Amino acid sequence: MGGYWSTNSVNLPLAGTWTMKTTVRVSDVDQVTVSKPVRIVP
């Protein structure tokens, strides 16, 4: 099954440092996850 998800905006309830985590399935049994801090300012 193919596909993707995207958005032009995200509403977060509070300012601060959030952790964004993305998991990508690279084969039927393997996946890769990357986490990055994202700073949100008011």
Q: What does the model show?
A:
By secondary structure, this protein is an all-beta fold. It has a domain at 15-42. Helices cover 0% and strands 48% of the residues. A two-stranded antiparallel ribbon has the order 1-2. β1 and β2 (31-40) form a beta hairpin. It is elongated and about 40 Å long.
Shape: elongated
What is the N-to-C succession of helices and strands?
A: EE
Number of helices: 0
**How far apart, in Å, are the first and last alpha carbons?**
39 Å
**Uncertain stretches:** none
Report the count of strand segments.
Answer: 2
Percent in helix: under 10%
**Which class of secondary structure composition applies to the elements?**
mainly beta
Rg over CA atoms = 14 Å
- The share of residues in extended strands comes to over 45%
Mean pLDDT score, rounded? 85
The major sheet is characterized as: 2 strands, antiparallel
Walk across the major sheet and give the strand order: 1-2
Properties at a glance:
single chain, 42 residues, mainly beta, two-stranded antiparallel ribbon, 48% strand, elongated
Sum this structure up briefly.
The chain is an all-beta fold and 42 residues long. 0% of the residues lie in helices and 48% in strands. The chain has a domain at 15-42.
